[in-house]
């Protein structure tokens, strides 16, 4: 392993040379000449030639159920690792990613691999880093690598049984070494954001291994997102004098509240885990203020699920019973269409839906809209 590492390091003087490949070939030759196997060096061993006959998997019912269970975690893992690798290298090279194209290619590759009874396919960090480190500049590098691998399978596969495992490990480490840097973790830590996720991901990978560690890190990210979304922050907005801008009132002492109204903005999208809590807090704050009108700014909500819609309609009915009214500002087109279908004579009336907070505030200067649950 030390000799292989030294050879790779020495060959790095010539970047155009495939240092790792040369080291692997040299190790195979040394194994045959020096009989390293008898000296106790562990070898890769015989690798069975793959079959390339496309057909659907012949599995029983229990096996399909087991595959379905594993597929969920595998999809999450492949997406997380592949997108992370692609994004990291794109940022490093100044490239722009087309997410749809990249994910379509990933899905097509997995479909083809499944039909050929192959392994799951992903843009693994090790392979991506090795490709980048070898100086790949275009998609032709992938085609050339595919051709070389095909040639290796056809010609050199029997020779792999003589490859020492330590040398293979050195080759993998050499491919990843240039990409191993704590700088991204340190930068994220200094931002003061996602520290729990960073620490949890590192500990999970070190404790559970790459596969289960990444799955644990993804699960932790999902739990953290749900926690944040289910504990929304409601900001009270007030107008900056002489402008149409409405800002967070506690952070701008010079901002002026709209008389007779309470304007609130949820900082997270409304969905099933957050909607009830947002509506309950909004109703409580309106009652404490004693204002006649509640304006909710929905700029963070591009759409609403059924629970969020029901909570909005319930809040509108509750306020009507108290002799108050609800107006919605910064309402996106999908939300407008949903409200128009669900409550055309109530909250979905155009008179109660506004494109901006300033328009909603200006409407309060005039008479209340007729039949105003909106």
UniProtKB/TrEMBL annotation:
GO biological processes: transmembrane transport
GO cellular component labels: membrane
Recorded topology in the membrane: Multi-pass membrane protein
Localisation: Membrane
Domain STAS: 251-364
Pfam families for the chain: STAS (PF01740), Sulfate_transp (PF00916)
CDD domains in alphabetical order: STAS_SulP_like_sulfate_transporter (cd07042)
Domain of life of the source: Eukaryota
Residues passing through the membrane, by range: 17-34, 141-161, 167-189, 196-223
Keyword terms, alphabetized: Membrane, Transmembrane, Transmembrane helix
InterPro entries: SLC26A/SulP_dom, SLC26A/SulP_fam, STAS_dom, STAS_dom_sf
Major localization listed first in the record, in broad terms: membrane
The protein, known as: STAS domain-containing protein
Organism: Heterosigma akashiwo
